[in-house]
Amino acid sequence: MKYSELLERCKNRVYDQIVIAAEDAFKETSELRRVYHFEPSYLNLENGTALVDGAECAYSEYVISGWIGDIELVVIQPVSGETIYKKYLDRFGTGICCLHEQILAGEFESACETYKGRGLKAGQCGEGYCIYDLMDDIGILYAIHAVDEVKAVSRNDRKICQINITCPDVEEMAVKLAKYFEIGPYEIGHINNQTVGNLGIFVDGKMQQPEFEYLLGMNLCGNIEIETISPVKGPNCFADFIKERPIGGYNHLKEVVPLSTGKWQKEIEHYENLGMQQCIKGKIGPCGWCFVDTMKEIGFLVELGDGEPMTKLPDGYNAYFIPEKD
């Protein structure tokens, strides 16, 4: 699809679930409560059957979920059955595994046919949902599920504004997301010592300003940014992630904590009081952000953004688009 077509396609889409595969759902939930202010509202041992790689599979799994703004975080611990979540967990361990998009019930079957026609593998399907297995390709799962109305409903005053896929090649990822799911266009820019102000990277036990660079691709897809990052040089948490997981995958969630609410410093202090280190922080233009190293505790990084509007990109950012503007 062309730049303008992708822009239009992404305008009104809604994502309402992010799934965390966990070896121990109760331990993961406990850590999410302690670290990420997560309050579960649902807990159950669920039993069912699904088509997994085209064959019927009986399964059971613990499911614990709660809402952060308009996104439901769902923690799933496979108990029995070779489900797609079990396969993900066996391969990558505890962490974010799947992003769920709403699809109108009347359009669900045609959407499944469209994705099948693009060569996507339906790793697991059940009544009204389908999970696509891209573990071998880009290290993620992606799901669609049928709803009567495509609508984002905020349950509290928090906001997950972004989910990130860290990968070896940000341009290749942008092309694949557009090809598979019509997610795009991507604005790609350079994050480095020239473009980041107030820089700090945790290296050798202290915050430093080493030479570094990564490429960042931004796309707003309805109610969430689907960001891509690929490390280029120097020490940073994204290079560490790719070292551990060369194929890439979901790396972090970003939450907006606007300066205007007075909560920004309180959030920083919350993580400091837990002994959790900021692994990288800085400003791009007027926008401040920091990443907290919560990988060991909850299986993904937490990014905080101060919500300041981007009025001007810094010199050296050198943004370009995939696909190019038409």
Give the CA-based shape. Answer: globular
Report the strand count.
20
Rg estimate, integer Å: 19 Å
Distance between the termini: 11 Å
Could you tell me the strand content as a percent range?
35-45%
Structural class: alpha+beta
What is the N-to-C order of secondary-structure elements (H for helix, E for strand)? HEHEEEHEHEEEEHEEEEEEHEHEEHEE
Continuous helix count: 8
The biggest beta sheet is recorded as: 12 strands, mixed
Helix content: 10-25%
> What ranges have pLDDT less than 50 throughout 5 or more consecutive residues?
none
3D architecture notes:
The protein has 326 residues and is α+β, with helices and mostly antiparallel strands. The chain is 22% helix and 44% strand. It contains eight helices and 20 strands. Strands 9, 10, 11, 12, 13, 14, 15, 16, 17, 18, 19 and 20 form a twelve-stranded mixed β-sheet that branches. It has an eight-stranded mixed barrel with strand order 1-4-3-2-6-7-8-5. β6 and β7 form a beta hairpin. The longest helix is centred in the first third of the chain and has 12 residues, at 25-36. The mean pLDDT is 97.
Give the tags.
single chain, 326 residues, alpha+beta, twelve-stranded mixed sheet, eight-stranded mixed β-barrel, 22% helix, 44% strand
Topology:
Elements: H1 3-10, E1 15-21, H2 25-36, E2 42-52, E3 55-68, E4 71-80, H3 84-92, E5 95-104, H4 108-117, E6 122-126, E7 129-134, E8 140-147, E9 160-166, H5 170-181, E10 186-192, E11 197-203, E12 206-208, E13 213-218, E14 220-221, E15 224-233, H6 237-244, E16 249-256, H7 264-273, E17 278-284, E18 287-292, H8 295-298, E19 301-305, E20 320-322
Parallel strand pairs: 1-4, 5-8, 9-15, 16-19
Antiparallel strand pairs: 1-5, 2-3, 2-6, 3-4, 6-7, 7-8, 9-16, 10-13, 10-20, 11-12, 11-17, 13-15, 14-15, 17-18, 18-19
